[in-house]
C-alpha cells in the first residue's frame, strides 16, 4: 500500500508539472505601421540578430530594483527570441518602407544588393519602468559607390509601471522593435556612412578567368 501511495504521489506531481495551462507564452507582435517611408534598402538580407544571453532564452526576463535580471519558468516566449526578433524586424522594415528585407538564408535566385546586421547590446524591461533596446546596426552595400552604414540605436519605451507583467513587457518589446525598424528603414541614428570604393569580384567572375601557365 505504501508503494502505491508513493507512486500515486509521483504521478500527480508529474501531471502538475506537465500541465501546459500553467505555462504562459507571449508573442512579439508589433502594431501595423501607421506611416510609410522611402525605400532606401532595396533587396537586403538580414543576418540573425545578435541578442544578449538573458534576452535569447525562452523565459521572459526583467530587471528588479536590486539590479538583478530575473525570470520565471512559467512565463515564456512563444517562439525562440532570436528567430522571432529577426523575422519580426525584417517584416516590419519591409512593411514600413516597401523594401525586400528577408532573414538569412536568402531564398531568391537574384542575390540581395545589401546585407543588414543588428547587434543588440541591451533588450530589457528595466527597473525604472522603461523597456530599453540599444545596440548597433550595420548595412553593407557591395556595389561600387554604395553607402555602408555603421549606426547605433537607443530606444526607450515607457511601460507605465516599475513592476510590469510579461504581457506588458511583450507589448513594450514589440513597440521597441517597431521603432527600430523605422530607424533602420531611414538609415537613421548616430554613426558613419562609408562609400564602397569598388565592387568586390563575383565568385563566377573569379572562376571564369583563365588559369596562369604552369612554371617549367
Automatic annotation (TrEMBL):
Residues 188-216 are annotated as: Disordered. This is ABC-type transport auxiliary lipoprotein component domain-containing protein. It holds the Pfam family ABC_trans_aux. It comes from the Bacteria. Residues 26-185 form the ABC-type transport auxiliary lipoprotein component domain. SUPFAM superfamilies: XCC0632-like.
Amino acid at each position: 500500500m505504501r508503494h502505491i501511495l508513493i507512486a500515486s504521489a509521483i504521478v500527480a506531481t508529474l501531471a502538475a508539472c506537465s500541465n501546459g495551462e500553467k505555462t504562459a507564452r507571449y508573442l512579439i507582435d508589433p502594431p501595423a505601421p501607421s506611416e510609410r517611408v522611402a525605400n532606401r534598402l532595396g533587396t537586403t538580407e538580414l543576418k540573425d540578430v545578435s541578442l544578449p544571453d538573458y534576452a535569447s532564452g525562452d523565459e521572459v526576463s526583467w530587471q528588479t530594483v536590486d539590479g538583478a535580471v530575473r525570470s520565471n519558468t512559467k512565463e515564456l516566449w512563444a517562439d525562440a527570441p532570436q528567430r522571432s526578433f529577426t523575422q519580426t524586424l525584417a517584416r516590419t522594415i519591409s512593411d514600413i518602407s516597401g523594401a525586400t528585407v528577408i532573414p538569412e538564408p536568402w531564398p531568391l535566385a537574384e542575390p540581395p544588393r545589401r546585407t543588414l546586421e543588428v547587434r543588440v547590446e541591451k533588450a530589457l524591461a528595466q527597473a525604472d519602468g522603461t523597456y530599453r533596446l540599444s545596440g548597433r546596426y550595420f548595412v553593407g552595400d557591395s556595389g561600387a559607390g554604395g553607402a555602408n552604414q555603421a549606426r547605433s540605436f537607443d530606444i526607450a519605451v515607457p511601460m507605465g509601471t516599475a513592476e510590469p507583467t510579461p504581457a506588458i513587457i511583450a507589448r513594450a518589446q514589440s513597440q521597441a522593435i517597431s521603432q527600430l525598424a523605422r530607424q533602420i528603414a531611414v538609415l537613421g541614428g548616430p554613426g558613419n556612412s562609408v562609400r564602397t570604393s569598388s565592387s568586390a569580384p563575383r565568385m563566377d567572375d573569379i572562376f571564369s578567368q583563365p588559369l596562369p601557365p604552369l612554371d617549367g
